[in-house]
Amino acid sequence: MAKVILEVKDLTVHYGAIQALRGISFEVREGEIITLVGSNGAGKTTTLHAVSNILRKSGGSVFFNGGDISAIPPDKIVADGLVQVPEGRRVFANLSIKDNLEMGAYTRSRKSAEEKAALAGDYENVYNTFPRLRERMQQFAGTLSGGEQQMLAIGRALMSKPRLLLLDEPSMGLAPILVDEIFSVIKKINDAGVTILLVEQNAYKALALADRGYILETGNIIKSGEAADLMKDDAVKTAYLGG
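Above: the chain's sequence. Below: its structure in token form.
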């Protein structure tokens, strides 16, 4: 069995008096695609933000690659290889595509010729993955379409050399043909060795892509299992897959 790269134990989060997560626990193994499925307000994005330490936890622990990262600053977590692509893309609108990618690599060293060569190779990998970004590398990110901005947000994250990539609603607001393209890219990224934790409004596509899934409801994990089994589950089909 593959090594557990992320372990979340009894994670609790409050927004003031409102409890958003109620002691959830789950794990992600190296090489997997894991998806969190749930309706709006179930706690999916809150979970990702708490794992990344963007959001303060009320209780519980998060272990990444065997170490407790519960109190580690977000930038150090990125440097360690846990990288989040936020909901809504959040590209730097007034910077070029090239500069946005450069921002993604801000934690990486450029001291040696070897490190500089590795960085140049990663730029090339991003441009090969998203040819449209190569064509527009000097264009301001704010002038890109929604689909192109999503490609840029993922490319920016890849420049951080993630071991675990957290994807928050990558298909939100995209046309169906672009959704298919983004999901195809996610599969390629995983095939290249990056473990993925996916939050996605399109539960059918998420479960079809994932190895395993967790169903979140009002801050609780109510069901988990192999993604293929969850797709056959009558309750899951009724609640999230349209029957």
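The chain has a mean pLDDT of 92.
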